[in-house]
Fold:
Amino acid sequence: MVTAFVMIKANTGEADRLRTDITGINGVESAHIVAGDVDLIAKASVETPAAVKEIAATQIQGIDGVEDTQTYIAMD
Structure:
């Protein structure tokens, strides 16, 4: 099992809608609106690193209102 955290920058005023859209993605366990350099953090738990790429680079980045993402894969 691969666990990854996706840091998401959102367009102004889009965080609530994006959280709803992101939590609907298969493999995303949770998404939280946060304070700091990013607007949301999503936690994904999937079978392969390729599945992480599909979630972060294709599905999340494909949502209207997402400005940027950074993905971190857990090592433990």
Q: What stands out?
A: The chain has two helices and four strands. The beta strands are 2-10, 28-33, 40-46, 66-73.
